[in-house]
Amino acid sequence: MRLLISNDDGIYSPGLALLARVAHKFGDVVVVAPDAERSSASHSISSTRPLSYKKTAFADGIPAYRVDGTPADCVALGMFNQRNVDVVLSGVNLGPNMGNSLWHSGTLAAAHQAALLGARGIAFSTPVIGESPDLEGLAPYVERVLDLLLPRTDLRLVNVNLPARPRGIHWVRQAIEQYDGEVVPANDPYNRPIYWIAVTQLREHAEGTDLWAFERGYITVTPIDLGLTDQAALPNVDQAVIEFPDVDEPELLHESDRETMDEVERAALVK
Ligand code: MN
Predict the structure, then answer these.
(1) 201 Cα–ligand 1 center, Å
(2) Cut 0.85: pTM above it
(3) What is the 161 CA–ligand 1 centroid distance (Å)?
């Protein structure tokens, strides 16, 4: 099995080293991660500038590369340069990723990028309590989760959160009932207004959700859907297609037309 390890905390995160070391027991491992922290980068890609891909010394002699881009960039470049990647493991993120924070997570996005490119993705996160989390203590639990999930070739994208001392593993849905972001106003040294986008503590988690199970000491495992369509809403519209009168069916754009359009665009740039 060929495993690519990435994250959003950056190439020097101890959580990345832990995940790469544990993954090493399951197959060939290569690390491709951001050169600096890109937490909350979500699934953004760098489409307006080129990217570098630099060989980097890494723990246990594991081959590693750092990219001056986002987590999704790292997985795109990693899967381009390292052929036949089966699974991308992302993390272990230093900080949990549950509930609506999944929308912002670069950790999940790296795994998501793998799924979009035809591989599978598993994202790992753990809370930071005090100075630093007990990553060594987490190693056997990461291994246990990989034992469980790596054979599940039917699951394309999975999100995992590990409490410090887990009592078990719980398959759960993402909590979507509440949002944990808030805007905190303050003043800069010149008394001008500034703002922090901060995280609030949520209470009262709905049963069967990631936040609910995590609070009870379980490792949470959530299979993630790759589509955003509200499947329940779609059949409930009054009219699935609304045709406008007197409009001819458009001709489909052919490849040759696209090339002509590219030439037109290039000509416009030269001017
Ligand atoms: Mn992070």
Answers:
(1) 18
(2) yes
(3) 13
